[in-house]
Amino acid sequence: MSVFETVAVIGGGAWGTALAQASAMAGRATTLVVRTPEQADRINAARTNEAALPGQALLPNVTATSDPSEADVVVLAVPAQATRTLLSGFDPQLLAGRPVVLSAKGLETGTLARQSEILADMAPDAIGFVLSGPSFAADVAAGRPTAVTLAGDDANLTSDLAAALAGPSFRPYAADDRVGVEIAGALKNVYALACGAVDGAQLGASARAALIARGYAEMARMVTAMGGSAHTLTGLAGLGDLTLTCTSVQSRNYQFGMALGAGRRTEDILGSGAKLAEGVATAPVAAALARSLGVDAPLIDAVDAVVAGKADIATVVAGLMSRPLKREA
Ligand SMILES: NC(=O)C1=CN([C@@H]2O[C@H](COP(=O)(O)OP(=O)(O)OC[C@H]3O[C@@H](n4cnc5c(N)ncnc54)[C@H](OP(=O)(O)O)[C@@H]3O)[C@@H](O)[C@H]2O)C=CC1
Ligand SMILES: O=C(CO)COP(=O)(O)O
């Protein structure tokens, strides 16, 4: 019997619902912690979270609740900018000594913090893990094959946790580079905005592929400057998620980028009820982080400028194409 029998997934959106379903498929007794008792009642009665993943039936061992109670494993699945607020409402004792899996992909506005750093601030006695990789919520919840990276500091514990969360269609690979995994997960959303914009502006598939390759190189500079390993980027959280998000219209970041590429402004897209696109908040944070680290990050800067409405696509593309020529390495 696993020491990780019960799992609480906090966050009743698409990803929280999908991870609760994955945990249930792995055989864990799983609670999906949502904001209100009414939401929990609705989900339990309908056996689906219609607001988050319409039409997806939930397994019997997923129970929705609005009242977080003790579990062997806690998974946080709220937007990156909400993690600190969420944790500030928690009794730190509930998380002390427990594995807490961070699944949001983004950097915090103001502090430039990774999710692990927020957890260390707010619940220093929790044992932090990060989960990231190419995995659309709808695919995971429906039981379509998915593989992700689960990174933690203790190799044995990480492998045990990966085994506890693994199911027939959900395959976590254990890893130890939390910094690399978190930076990759946050930055791929920024590059997905750029790729969507390239397609929205009809700049061609060649431009998009070049952007993915140069984004990967930029990501490697960021990861190594932060003490992570560039090797992490060859895996699911790096190449895997970058490929998925930068080439799929299913990605919300890519969709947001397409709207930017078509000439719409950020406020206009947000005002018309766009879905969560984490790259919008992360772009300026990543740009500030790159500056503070002395990392050359022209693509992040370009996305930041377009998202902030300081430059249009044609201007940033002209700027990128006229940079001094350099060797590729
Ligand atoms: N969807 C996907 O395919 C994937 C998403 N992710 C990542 O998961 C994270 C969450 O995304 P996703 O679930 O898709 O987003 P959604 O917009 O679908 O859901 C976000 C959920 O978080 C809830 N929430 C927001 N703030 C708080 C808070 N302070 N306390 C409690 N609940 C809160 C929202 O509640 P309310 O609606 O009431 O505000 C909503 O239920 C993001 O970082 C995303 O990058 C990672 C992999 C795949
Ligand atoms: O992270 C994701 C897939 O791995 C989801 O991407 P979007 O948030 O852009 O939809």
From TrEMBL:
Residues 177-317 form the Glycerol-3-phosphate dehydrogenase NAD-dependent C-terminal domain. Keywords: Cytoplasm, Lipid biosynthesis, Lipid metabolism, NAD, NADP, Nucleotide-binding, Oxidoreductase, Phospholipid biosynthesis, Phospholipid metabolism. Sn-glycerol 3-phosphate binds at K105, G133, S135, K188, D241, S251, R252, N253. Gene3D superfamilies: N-(1-d-carboxylethyl)-l-norvaline Dehydrogenase, domain 2 (1.10.1040.10), NAD(P)-binding Rossmann-like Domain (3.40.50.720). Pathway: Membrane lipid metabolism; glycerophospholipid metabolism. The active site is at K188. Its EC number is 1.1.1.94. NCBIfam families: PRK00094.1-2, PRK00094.1-4. This is Glycerol-3-phosphate dehydrogenase [NAD(P)+]. It comes from Devosia lucknowensis.
